[in-house]
Structures are given as structure tokens and as C-alpha cells.
Amino acid sequence: MAIRGIVNTARSLGYYLRLQEVTANNVANASTDAFKPDRLVAHQLPGTEHPVPVQVTDLRQGSFRETGRLLDLSLDGPGFFVVRTERGERLTRGGSLRLDGAGRLTDAGGAPLLGEDGPLVLNGARVEVQGDGTVLVDDALVGRLRIVKSGDPARLLKEGGGRFVPAGALHAVAEGVARVRQGAVEESNLDALLSMVDLVNIQRAYAANVNALKTLDGVLGTVVNQVGKP
Fold first, then answer.
1. C-alpha distances in angstroms, 89 versus 111, 113, 119, 148, 222?
2. Which of 2, 47, 106, 163 has the most CB atoms in a 10 Å sphere around its CB?
3. Are residues 70 and 43 in the same domain?
4. Angstrom distance (rounded) from CA 132 to CA 117
5. How confident is the model at residue 1 (pLDDT cuts 50, 70, 90)?
């Protein structure tokens, strides 16, 4: 019985270590634009006795912060913008964009933001991005932002810099479902205060399991060394 208790407690300690790591990373990125926190959920695998923790990303939309900056773009609604990187296309929820030396609209990491016909080149004085993603420069049509959704959102993989590696086929978001907001950035959907409270609770739960493990180890030592002695 003591051995089974030790195994279960050790499994709990591993879970709390992983949960602390995930929660701490969430807190560290609480002020990152459009950050999507990770969660741990229990998942029962076929043929296993105990559920295992599975990490999933919370893709719910965050609130918006108005900046007034013309190259700050965000999406109000489901979907992603698309950027082109050396490793292929990646998905992003926008943020503080910029122009590179060729006049291309890029994300903070320098990856070009894609329109329906490729990268968008903005050579002009006044940039206007309409709600449907249409981009105008000095009232001249430049293109339309490519807005997509993933065929399997649960399998999206974070790559850093606010980018996601797409999973499954990408589909265009139907017109009117999502609206592009110019001059605003999406904030993280994480409640930093609650996450800090979670960190404290995780540390307490870990300490309690350590104490339980010590107690079980003492019980096992007593059984092995004392029971059965003449």
C-alpha cells in the first residue's frame, strides 16, 4: 500500500512541476500582445490506469488596446493573419507591425505579412486598413490581407514571437466573421493576478505532496525494518 502511495505521490509531484513551469511562462508573457496562455488538462489514454496532463493553448480572444498607430493591426473575431518565414507560412494575431527596407509590411520579427496575392508593399504617406482587410495607400488599392483559420486549432504549435505553426489545411475566414482593427492591438487573454495566485497554490500543493512522500517513505521504512522482527 505504501509503495502504491509513493508512486501516486511521485506522479503528482511531476504534474505540479510541469504545471508550475507552464503557469510561470504564462505570467512572464502576460503583457505580450496577443499572447495565448497554455493550460494543462487531464487526458485518459487508451489502456492506461491514470490520466496524463496534456498541454493545450487557450485561443480565446483578448481585449483590445487602442494605440492610434496606423501599423498596429489586430483581429476582432476568429482567425489569423499569415506571415511568410524561412520555415514556411506561420499564423499570427497581429500586433505592432512595421515596414522593412523594401516597403513590405512585416511583423516584429521581420516576416512579411501576406495579402491574398502575396506580401503587401506600402509605398506612400497614408495607410488605411479597412475592416474586411482591404489595404489602401494614399487611397489607392494595394491588396487585401489574408485572414485564415486552421483546420485543426487544437494542434497549433507555438513558435515564439506570437507565431503559430499551422496544423491541417488552412481555410479563408468567411467575410464578416472577423474584422480587422487598425490602430489597436490585442492584449493577452490571461488574468495575471489569478495566475499569480495559481502559482502560490501550486507551490503549496507541491510542498504538501513532498511532506506526504516523506511520511510514506517513513512508513515503508518501518514496514521493511521493523515488521516481522522477533
1. 9, 10, 12, 12, 61
2. 163
3. no
4. 15
5. low
- Between the alpha carbon of residue 226 and those of residues 213, 214, 215, 230, the distances in Å are 19, 18, 16, 9
C-alpha cell recorded at residue 162: 506570437
Percent of the chain with pLDDT over 70: 93
Q: pLDDT digit string (tens) for 111-128?
A: 999 999 999 999 988 999
Q: Is 230 inside any structural domain?
A: no
Taking a C-beta distance cutoff of 8 angstroms, is the pair 184, 67 a contact? yes
Does the reported pTM lie above 0.90?
no
Q: Are residues 96 and 207 in the same domain?
A: no
Helix or strand run (H / E) with residue 16: helix 2-28
**What is the structure's pLDDT at 155?**
87
Q: What amino acid is encoded at 81 in this protein?
A: F
Domain that holds residue 142: 64-186
In b/e form, how buried is each residue of 149-186, taking b as 16+ CB within 10 angstroms? bbeebeebeeeebbbbbbeeebeebeeeebebbbebbb
Report how many domains make up the chain.
2
Q: Is residue 129 part of a domain?
A: yes
Q: What gap in Å lies between CA 91 and CA 131, rounded to an integer? A: 19
Higher-scoring residue by pLDDT: 217, 100? 100
pLDDT of residue 225: 67
* Residues 163, 87 contacting (CB under 8 angstroms): no
Task: For residue 227, name the pLDDT band (cuts at 50, 70, 90).
Answer: low
The Cα–Cα gap between 159 and 126 comes to 32
Query: Whole-angstrom Cα distance, residue 80 to residue 147?
Result: 6
Does residue 32 fall inside a structural domain? yes
